[in-house]
């Protein structure tokens, strides 16, 4: 047994995976051998889900069957919506609300209860239900808290377009629907990131799929992981609202020893390929709207961070201004990340439990030794 301490488990191999591969030196990401650039350009989120869960890209018949099976699961039980309503009225944090919402889904899942956690067919049915219902829960939460009624899912729209429809109460145009679909494709999987690791730690105890996804949502919520996309937009807004020079802002933040959200990565030494794609999208959206101020502010910060800190943007940096220009409320950026990443979490859980071993690392004990126990009344 090695006594080397690997803080943050950096570089530690704990599993084999066929799902996604990252080359952090050149900034390359692939899902099952397909580059993220090709998938972003050519595949829908539904195709990527199929690829991750079933191992190959679907043909037209397979995709139609899969899509129908997902669409059929979009509606959420009224009792779950009532829980969502209570959370929205209590002004719950959206990620916390999503975490509780997904946890609540298990009470209404016909395959939950005493189901064998390694039953592949039951797990796939649960996977479809959880993934199809997350957008419905999230859109309902976002609407209820602003005093609007939830909008029922439509059957004729894609996963991405249906979410925007349920969120805004109107069908998105093609640019919005395609941009959002692409964002879902980009966020679907990323090796053993922290939230995916949480999901498989939970699965490795032979717990159920809802528990794995709930654990993962809680992990994605933090500002060092998925929570960074919200922080990035709040930072850009702060700079803009104060009519500050972005360079001055970023210098000040670094001088105070603060981290700049959306920069740095455990695996990438160079710009995250997803940030390259989203940066272009952010610029396109700005040009279409007649102002690229968010894009320009972002690139100014990017250049300074590269020069001063040698740090490059991660996926959260340019997703922020992309979502902002799509009119999406800032505090649901991280739940949107979860809405996509659930596909990857589930794929990793399936893969891991196929050859399961309990995940249980060690901590080096640094506490006191040989203490003499003193009964409470004598302390
Ligand atoms: C989807 C995702 O999860 S992508 C990541 C989203 N998170 C963020 O954007 C938050 C900001 N980024 C960070 O905090 C980090 O870069 C992380 C958490 C992503 C990666 O962390 P680690 O691999 O553990 O790197 P670590 O925290 O050890 O940082 C290494 C050095 O870079 C510095 N650094 C890393 N990121 C940043 C940053 N964003 N701003 C300023 N300094 C930074 C650290 O202060 C540290 O410097 P030091 O050695 O002088 O103390
Ligand atoms: O891989 C990571 O550590 C974080 C990340 O970029 C992701 O989860 O998409």
Automatic annotation (TrEMBL):
Primary enzyme class: transferase
Family: Belongs to the citrate synthase family.
InterPro entries: 2-MeCitrate/Citrate_synth_II (IPR011278), Cit_synth_Halo_CitZ (IPR054872), Citrate_synth-like_lrg_a-sub (IPR016142), Citrate_synth-like_sm_a-sub (IPR016143), Citrate_synthase (IPR002020), Citrate_synthase_bac-typ (IPR024176), Citrate_synthase_sf (IPR036969)
Known pathway: Carbohydrate metabolism; tricarboxylic acid cycle
Active site: 265, 316
Pfam families: Citrate_synt
Protein origin, superkingdom: Archaea
Gene Ontology MF terms in the entry: citrate synthase activity
Keyword entries, A-Z: Transferase, Tricarboxylic acid cycle
Protein name per the record: Citrate synthase
E.C. code: 2.3.3.16
Acetylation as UniProt keyword: no
The keyword Transferase appears for this protein: yes
One annotated Gene Ontology cellular component of this protein: cytosol
Catalyzed reactions: oxaloacetate + acetyl-CoA + H2O = citrate + CoA + H(+)
NCBIfam families listed in its UniProt record: Cit_synth_Halo_CitZ, cit_synth_II
Stored SUPFAM superfamilies: Citrate synthase
């Amino acid at each position: 047994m090695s006594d080397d301490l690997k803080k943050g488990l950096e570089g530690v191999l704990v599993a084999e995976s066929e799902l996604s591969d990252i080359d952090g030196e050149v900034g390359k990401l692939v899902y099952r051998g397909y580059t993220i650039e090709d998938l972003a350009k050519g595949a829908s989120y539904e195709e990527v889900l199929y690829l991750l869960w079933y191992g190959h890209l679907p043909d037209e018949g397979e995709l139609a069957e899969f899509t129908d099976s997902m669409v059929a699961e979009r509606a959420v039980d009224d009792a779950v919506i009532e829980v969502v309503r209570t959370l929205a009225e209590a002004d719950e944090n959206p990620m916390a609300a999503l975490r509780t919402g997904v946890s609540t889904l298990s009470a209404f899942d016909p395959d939950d209860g005493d189901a064998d956690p390694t039953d592949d067919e039951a797990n796939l049915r649960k996977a479809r239900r959880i993934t199809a219902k997350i957008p419905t829960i999230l859109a309902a939460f976002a609407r209820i808290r602003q005093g609007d009624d939830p909008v029922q899912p439509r059957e004729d729209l894609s996963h991405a377009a249906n979410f925007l429809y349920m969120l805004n109460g109107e069908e998105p145009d093609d640019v919005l629907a395609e941009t959002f679909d692409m964002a879902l494709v980009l966020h679907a999987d990323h090796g053993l990131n922290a939230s995916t690791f949480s999901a498989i730690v939970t699965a490795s105890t032979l717990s159920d799929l809802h528990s794995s996804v709930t654990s993962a949502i809680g992990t994605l919520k933090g500002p060092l992981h998925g929570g960074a996309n919200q922080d990035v937009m709040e930072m850009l807004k702060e700079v803009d609202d104060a009519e500050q020079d972005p360079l001055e802002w970023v210098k000040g933040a670094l001088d105070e020893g603060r981290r700049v959200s959306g920069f740095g990565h455990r695996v990438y030494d160079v710009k995250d390929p997803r940030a390259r794609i989203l940066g272009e999208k952010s610029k396109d959206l700005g040009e279409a709207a007649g102002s690229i101020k968010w894009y320009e502010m972002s690139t100014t910060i990017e250049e300074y961070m590269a020069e001063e800190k040698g740090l490059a943007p991660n996926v959260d940096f340019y997703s922020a201004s992309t979502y902002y220009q799509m009119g999406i409320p800032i505090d649901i950026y991280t739940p949107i990340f979860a809405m996509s990443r659930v596909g990857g979490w589930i794929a990793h859980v399936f893969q891991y439990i196929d050859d399961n071993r309990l995940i249980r690392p060690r901590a080096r004990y640094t506490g006191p030794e040989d203490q003499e126990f003193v009964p409470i009344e004598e302390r």
